[in-house]
Amino acid sequence: MERLAGRIILLSGASRAIVGFLAGLLAMFAQPPFGIFAAVFVSFPMLVWLIDGVATHPDEGAVRRLLPSASIGWCFGFGYFLGGLWWLGNAFLVEADLFAWALPLAVVGLPALLALFYALAVLIARCLWSDGVGRIAALAVGFGVAEWLRSFLFTGFPWNAIGYAAMPMPLMMQSASVLNVATINMLAVFVFAAPALIGTGKGARIGLAAAAVLFAAHIGYGYYRLSLPVPPPPERTVRLVQPVIDQAKKMDDRERAAIFEEHLALTAAPPQGGDKRPDLIVWPETSIPFILTDNPDALSRIAEVLQEGQVLVAGAVRAEDAGAGLPPRYYNSIYVIDDRGQIVGAADKVHLVPFGEYLPFEDMLNSWGLSSIAANMPGGFSAASSRSVLTLPGGRTFYPLICYEAIFAEEVDGNARLADALLNVTNDAWFGDTPGPRQHFHQAQLRTVETGTPMIRAANTGISAIVDARGVLVVGLGYNYKGVTDAILPGKMPTMTDSATRGRIFWFTGGFLLLVAAISRRGFNFRTN
């Protein structure tokens, strides 16, 4: 270990940048669909040793002293995000004649920008760097701050937050019922980076012991919570419809009627094995391929297919009159439709995808000839001012999360804990059979553990699933599997902390790690006898 550390510490120039990039790329393999948990225990010690090797002259200015560390963080982040987000380019190939030019911006440009957050993480850590266990604490603080900022700056994009690597399966997800993702990010980096202490820093034994205790508590609490009895579920059977409609076909006006009938046919399919017929049918995001309120015959067809007492929840585009002389406003929405073909509830998407559903600085960028992927609707989509909880006939409530809203822990507020289930409808056909849909599902899965609330998830091409309040898969349909699956909606489970308490834990944890880093930098040796 010491020989390897020494070689990495002595790297310089291009070699240092390449190893930093490769370390970040390796860390990505801990995320879905690979889930190679051991990868982060190699990549983060490499990052520590790269930072150890940064040599500065005391007479240099602050920028020249800090820039080498920031560049290491950027290289690490660029490898991590390039390896984890390259699949975003698929969305620009659906209408390649219009958007292929933007492919490099999505595949390379976005990772390059996101890597700035990891440059900041290493920059913060370097300001507190020492030769002992404190540098591991400093790195944890740096990544904790960077990932927290990434969750909300510029509308936020916390995709593949580093803490998710510590939660690859339900056993290792249960800490999310106590801590928020921001805290898990910090503690995960501390544990991931701890092997760098072996033979290369003061206080190695106490640092490694602390990491081992954190890891054991993480696993032990998972075993404990998974052993708890799940409350009796309500007697409500849910059907997930996964039609697997190619995105190019969805955008073809000539295919709209056939797509609608395909959804209806899957809805009407008899239950397998003589099981109870579903009470609730859920279609994916934008599954109704036209403006439903402009097509009363479509509502009649839905009423013909639904049996007495059945309810359909379906993703659709909703149009709203904006006033005289103005084009309609369009919303990415969810409708609740009863067995008489009446719309009895609706909820609109709050957190839109920049450049996908709307164009930031629209007037300026339009003047440059740029448009959003949703440009077939004037002005793209509009965002709802607040999130509406869906109330179904009979009084059951669902907390709606449309598409990538499910990756934002902050989007799931206190009202989610009061709902009977989280409802996530999405259309990941834009990204093809890539890591994207698997990563999306994994992050949505964590919302159930955080809230103690089961999730109903319908995806056009997959992954559709019903997930219980512990993140355990009840039923599911794999990617590109066309069909339906029925299951009884699971019950809810209590969580140990609420959002406010988790926020306080985050700041306390960060403050404690900051104190450890500061004491270590002042020269106090953490030793064990």
UniProtKB/TrEMBL annotation:
Keywords for this protein: Acyltransferase, Cell membrane, Lipoprotein, Membrane, Transferase, Transmembrane, Transmembrane helix
Major place of residence: membrane
Entry-linked Gene3D superfamilies: Carbon-nitrogen hydrolase (3.60.110.10)
GO-annotated molecular function: N-acyltransferase activity
Pfam families documented for this protein: CN_hydrolase (PF00795), LNT_N (PF20154)
Residue stretches spanning the membrane: 7-30, 36-54, 66-87, 99-124, 136-157, 177-199, 206-224, 505-524
Enzyme Commission (EC) number: 2.3.1.269
Domain of life: Bacteria
Keyword Protein biosynthesis recorded: no
GO BP annotations listed: lipoprotein biosynthetic process
Compartment(s): Cell membrane
PROSITE patterns: CN_HYDROLASE
Listed GO CC annotations: plasma membrane
Residue ranges constituting the CN hydrolase domain according to the UniProt record: 241-491
Topology term for the membrane: Multi-pass membrane protein
Metabolic or biological pathway: Protein modification; lipoprotein biosynthesis (N-acyl transfer)
Classification via HAMAP family: Lnt (MF_01148)
PANTHER family: APOLIPOPROTEIN N-ACYLTRANSFERASE (PTHR38686)
Family: Belongs to the CN hydrolase family. Apolipoprotein N-acyltransferase subfamily.
Function statement: Catalyzes the phospholipid dependent N-acylation of the N-terminal cysteine of apolipoprotein, the last step in lipoprotein maturation.
Protein name: Apolipoprotein N-acyltransferase
Name of the gene this protein is made from: lnt
